Amino acid sequence: MKVGWRTARLRAHAVLGTWPLPALFAWTMGWLCWAALRSLGASVPAAFALGCAIGGIVAAGAATPWRQVFVFAGFPLSFAAAGLGGSLPAWTWLLPLGLLLLAYPVKAWRDAPLFPTPHDALRGLVAAAPLDVGARILDAGCGLGAGLSALRGEYPQARLCGIEWSWPLRIACAWRLRDAEIRRGDIWETSWAPYALVYLFQRPESMERAEAKAARELVPGAWLVSLEFEVPTLLPQVVLGDPGRRRVWLYQVPFRTR
User: Fold this and answer.
1) Band of the pLDDT at 82, cuts 50, 70, 90?
2) Which residues pair with 162 in a beta bridge?
3) CB count, 10 Å around CB of 231?
4) Is the pLDDT of residue 12 over 50?
5) pLDDT per position as a tens digit, 204-227
6) What's the rounded Cα separation, in Å, for the pair 15 and 199?
7) How far is CA 208 from CA 182, 228, 249, in A?
8) pTM score of the predicted model
9) How far is Cα 159 from Cα 192, in angstroms, rounded to an integer?
10) pLDDT band at residue 154 using 50, 70 and 90 as cut-offs
């Protein structure tokens, strides 16, 4: 019985650890606690404080600072929106959700949210991973194109390509970077074989999947470059990053395992 209970706990932890379920769980529990306390006669400040506290507890276990912000802020922001709504019909608050789903479809929830690459995050990349003139570079999950812009600064003579699942972001990125090839597609279903370098700014949970795909598809000598998150099973050829900057992890095929 103890083994079964432990297995159930591990499965529940694994499920709740899948993004964005921690955020949805925290927001839901915040509202449930608010409703329960108010029904018992608790004051508005007390019920609100407990709802925020639940978000804070769940946020403490989030993998990155930005996720901690999302987990914690959901309940107080929705609480403020509900208070500001006044006489607006309830469906009005579905409009922001609809816009969010349009820009960030459900299929993309297992990948990274829209976090732009800082303009100087890839400084020094060309010296660490030199490429031939005209080499093809892929930004897998290019968003609005901040990563491609940083890559262009390092590789002005490369052929830049971007893949983005959200069609509004794909259109915006193509308009912003006229000299790059921007396509709508799934980064996991699109072949990485034609590229000399694949750039990722994903999330920790995606890195083992990225390593497996890169090992299958990239040719010897090609590079897998990840901003901030390392591949736990591989030894990097180079790690870039001055104090105050995000780290950049460089892996060259054939990969070196730990």
Assistant:
1) low
2) 139, 182
3) 24
4) no
5) 888 999 999 999 999 999 999 999
6) 28
7) 25, 14, 14
8) 0.63
9) 14
10) very high
Residue for token pair 């609480």: 79
- Helix, strand, or coil (residue 161): strand
Give the Å distances, CA to CA, from 202 to 42, 93, 107, 139: 42, 29, 15, 11
In this structure, is the dihedral angle defined by the CA atoms of residues 62, 67, 68 and 73, taken in order, positive or negative? negative
Instruction: Supply φ then ψ for residue 222, to 5 degrees.
Output: -75, 160
Encoding tokens for residue 99? 């816009």
Helix residue ranges per DSSP H, the chain: 2-16, 21-39, 44-59, 65-85, 94-103, 125-128, 146-154, 167-176, 207-217
Q: Three-class SS of residue 176? A: helix
Whole-number Å distance between alpha carbons of 66 and 115:
9
Contact between 197 and 160 (Cβ < 8 Å): no
User: In this structure, what token pair is assigned to residue 168?
Assistant: 């509004």
Residue with tokens 């019909």: 89
